[in-house]
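RECORD TYPE: inverse folding
INPUT: structure tokens
STRUCTURE:
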């Protein structure tokens, strides 16, 4: 016996019987062709289990298994994303075997997510779903992804970088905000001066500094790279009075490492004090990359210093140097013969980039 399809209020259902056990479920599809695919997968899975094979896990079971396997090897942020997905955002997919999750079901679940979240969050949701499904493929639980859904196109927004002329005052504000735990201010300086991620700054160690060559080589990184980064003089002078042979550079007062997210509150307070917006640990890293680019450092070098596997990833961190474009516009205007404020001795109006630095 195979399966049979029948309609209930416009939606196709299937039923079949294996080993005297009757199974009847909704395919949640209104198109017969799609419903037939769902029913066939369900029937083949039931036959496989009846013949002694292992059952295909539901999406919820797969997420729990992924978290258990990756608990000691994935980043805190990665684990938190999958855990949040598992607890709050499975929607109607959670109790479905992974091989029965269709394109339409994913799109409907995403629509549910979009009812209360922004499109960028929906794309992140889809990445987590794809991560789990690809893990199931890698472990040969399913042969391939059973759905095809593209990311939503998003309107790109300007991203903040720490203004050069505000940077010194901003770090003074950081010191004030971190007076209860000064090591947090040191870690934030390392993010700015070395382009470290927040977790890399929290775990930075004295033995990874080469004082003679003035370099710092992160010993634990997201991509497992070990690329030396030049240690700027101002940062070396800040660290030198506290120099040790080994141990955490920015340890808490109790000697332990700062937890994930430790820098957020301090940076928010510094932003408020200096009227800057959007400066986070991630954007501080973007500021580091952008300043190197504006100083003429080649993209290949920035890629190595940032420890990116692809230059395209590095490019995504760089904000455009609008000052260069503005100077070119003035030169073009002068060649054409248009009036220029330079002729009258007036300073040209602040460029978008210059305005962002105020």
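DESIGNED SEQUENCE:
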């Amino acid at each position: 016996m195979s399966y049979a399809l029948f309609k209930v209020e416009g939606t196709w259902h299937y039923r079949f019987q294996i080993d005297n056990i009757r199974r009847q479920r909704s395919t949640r599809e209104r198109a017969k062709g799609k419903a037939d695919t769902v029913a066939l997968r369900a029937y083949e899975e039931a036959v496989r289990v009846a013949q002694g094979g292992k059952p295909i896990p539901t999406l919820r079971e797969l997420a729990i298994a992924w978290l258990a396997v990756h608990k000691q090897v994935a980043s805190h942020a990665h684990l938190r994303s999958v855990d949040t997905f598992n607890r709050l955002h499975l929607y109607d997919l959670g109790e479905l075997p992974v091989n029965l999750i269709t394109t339409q079901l994913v799109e409907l679940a995403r629509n549910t997510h979009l009812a209360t979240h922004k499109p960028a969050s929906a794309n992140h949701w889809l990445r987590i779903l794809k991560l789990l499904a690809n893990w199931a493929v890698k472990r040969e639980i399913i042969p391939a992804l059973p759905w095809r859904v593209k990311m939503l196109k998003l309107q790109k927004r300007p991203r903040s970088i720490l203004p050069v002329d505000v940077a010194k005052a901003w770090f003074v504000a950081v010191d004030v905000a971190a007076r209860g735990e000064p090591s947090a201010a040191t870690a934030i300086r390392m993010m700015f001066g070395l382009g470290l991620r927040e977790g890399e700054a929290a775990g930075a160690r004295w033995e990874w500094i080469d004082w003679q060559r003035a370099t710092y080589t992160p010993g634990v990184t997201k991509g497992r790279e070990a690329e030396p980064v030049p240690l700027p003089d101002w940062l070396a002078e800040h660290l030198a009075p506290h120099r040790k042979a080994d141990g955490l550079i920015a340890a808490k007062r109790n000697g332990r490492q700062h937890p994930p997210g430790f820098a957020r509150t301090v940076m928010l307070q510094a932003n408020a004090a200096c009227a800057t917006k959007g400066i986070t640990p991630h954007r501080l890293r973007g500021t580091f990359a952008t300043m190197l680019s504006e100083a003429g450092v080649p993209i290949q070098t920035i890629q190595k210093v940032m420890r990116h596997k692809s230059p395209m990833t590095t490019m995504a961190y760089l904000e455009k140097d609008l000052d260069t474009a503005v100077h070119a516009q003035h030169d073009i205007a002068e060649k054409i013969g248009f009036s220029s404020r330079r002729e009258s001795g007036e300073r040209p109006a602040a460029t978008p980039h210059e305005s962002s630095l105020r």
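NOTES: Strands lie at 4-8, 11-18, 21-29, 209-210, 215-216, 229-230.
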